[in-house]
Each structure stands twice: as structure tokens, then as C-alpha cells.
Amino acid sequence: MPSTAELRPAPLRLFADRPSPRLYDRIVEVLRVRHYSRRTEEAYLHWMRRYIEFHQHRHPRQLAEVDVNRFLTHLAVEDHVAASTQNQALSALLFLYEHVLEQPLDRIEGVVRARRPKRLPVVLTVDEVSRVMAHFSGEKWLIAMLLYGGGLRLLEAPRLRVKDLDFERGEITVREGKGDKDRVTMLPQAVNRPLQDHLRRVQAVHQQDLAEGYGRVELPHALARKYPKANREWGWQFVFPQERRWRNPNTGDQGRHHIDESLVQRAVTLAVRGAGLTKRVTSHTFRHSFATHLLADGYDIRTVQELLGHNDVRTTMVYTHVLNRGGRGVRSPADLLARRPDER
Question: Is 326 domain-assigned?
Fold first, then answer.
């Protein structure tokens, strides 16, 4: 069940005489007006808090480009953060100055950049995927199959709603994915029957909730005001709801939120351990394997790019390096040598 903290981020608490600073309220307001995701909101608040604490709680209006440089350099030199982490901190501060304080920064120069090491993603073979899948059961198996079979990100699977599944066309519509983009990917035929059986059980629970006066799900943005009865409709319900009802602290309505992603992560860890793999496998590894296996089967890289939702094909190109092939597969010259003398 989502906690109140998950629905309403805690105040920055940087000023003892003001438990809810006006700066904090303004930041949250601007983030939500611009429809930033809750995860981005939490991340930006975190870096703004770190920035203010680093400068002994001075108000950001009293700080300038040189202070931003000092903070970002400290992250790279002292905290040894990754390049992506430093870039996220920079994005948060640029947002703070441009959209919240409305005093955009000039050029940010002289920052010691965190190193961006080149890393290849961990990819499973088809056999390894089969071994891992054998250690899932129930809805966790369904989610894992969607992560691998549709190339979904971790949060995209729990956030699926019933209306996002099209069994006739074999499609999944991913709503508000990374970058607030929608995309369409494939619905694996292997999950059709078990997923439909799962939905029948979920629908029975939803009907029971409605009969008891509950069954209202949280809707995105302002749809609850535009369509007051839509939160009870079957199509808007989550495909993978929580076992217990959740109460909306603002309206008092009770419904079922989607399951927490940490449950999926824990199930992946146990399944990989049970399969006896030594690779460092996470839920995102299924997405990497999805892309690599499609390319290995000869699918066009532009098609894979569209299914993954990548803006730039260069992001998708990393999977050709994982294949070490470009198209057909490269065979080691050692494999062309004659057999060892003891094998003749």
C-alpha cells in the first residue's frame, strides 16, 4: 500500500523556523504543473536539498554559477559519483534556477566531469532466460515474461492497466514511459492464456470491491475530475494490483494500487539465485536480453529501437556490440584450427 510519503514528498526541512518552506512548495508546484514523474520529483528534490546543504543552507538566489560549479565538482572529485548521477544533479539545478527561481544560469564552465566508463549491458542467453523463468510463479512469472517478451522497463509492467493490453493485435501500449512517451510493443503469445486467466481473477476481486463500495483506482493527472466515474471502470484497473486496498489520503476513496516494484526485484534475485547464474542479473537485464535476441534473429535495428522507445538509434546500437557481430555473428579464428593432437 503506498504510504503518504510516496504520494506527498517530505518537506526539505532546511529551515527550523519554517517546517514547510515556500521554496519547497514552489518547487513541487512547478514540477507537478509540468507533469514530471513522481520519481523525477523525488530525485530533483534530493539534489536541490544536497545543493543547499553543501552551501551551508544559503538560499539558492544568493548563489550563482560558480557555486553550482563547486557543487558539481565536489560530487565528481569527493563523492566519486557516476557521470549519469552528476548529470541528474545538474538537471535538477538548472530546473531550479530556470523554472522555479526564474533566473536562468549562464554557461556552466570549469566543472570537473565525472568519468563516463563504457559498459556493456549484461545479457542472458535464451537458455539462461528459460532457466531463470522456471523459478518464477504466478503473477511474478507473468511480469518477468512481459519484461523479457515485450522489452518493458521495471516500472512499466506494474503500471500497466487493463485497457493497455490488446490480445487480438498482440500489443502492449506503454503509457508515460521514460521521457513521458507512449509506445507500442509486443504482447508475447506465450502469456496470452495465463494472463487472461489472471485478469479474470483480478476482475472478480474488482467486482467484489465495487459491491462493497470500493474499487476506485487512482487516475493519472486530472482525469478523475474530467471523468468522475472512470476510476471504477474495469479498463482503468491495474493489471497487477496489490492484495490490500489502498486509501487515497486526499479523497478517502479506497481502491487497489499496483504492486510495488521491490517485490518484482526480490523475485528476480531469488530466481537468478535458484538458476545458479553467476552473472549480475537485474530486472533490466530482461530488457537488454529482449533487444539482443531480436537483433540476433535478424530484426532491423530501427524496429528494435521503436520497440524499446529509444530516441537515438545509437542507444540501441550498444546491443550490436554485445553480439560482437554487426549482423551474422563473428566466429573466433581459433575455432577453425585443427583439433588438438589428443583428440585426433
Answer: no
Active-site annotation holds for 225: no
d(CA 147, CA 223): 28
The residue out of 53, 83, 100 marking a domain boundary is 100
**79 contacts 120 by C-beta, under 8 angstroms:** no
DSSP tag of 241: B
Residue 59: CB atoms within 10 A of its CB come to 13
Which residue, among 267, 33, 295, has the nearest Cα to 133 in the 3D structure?
Answer: 267
Q: Given its phi and psi angles, is residue 203 left (phi above 0), alpha (psi -120 to 50 degrees) or beta? A: alpha
Catalytic annotation present for 321: no
pTM of the model: 0.74
In tens, the pLDDT along 59-76 reads 999 998 899 999 999 998
Catalytic residue among 51, 97, 148, 319: 319
Q: What total number of domains does the chain contain?
A: 2
Question: Which residue range(s) make up the domain with 200?
Answer: 159-258
Instruction: Assign 155 to helix, strand or coil.
Output: coil
Which residues make Cβ contacts (< 8 Å) with residue 186, sequence separation at least 6? 149, 150, 170, 171, 172, 307
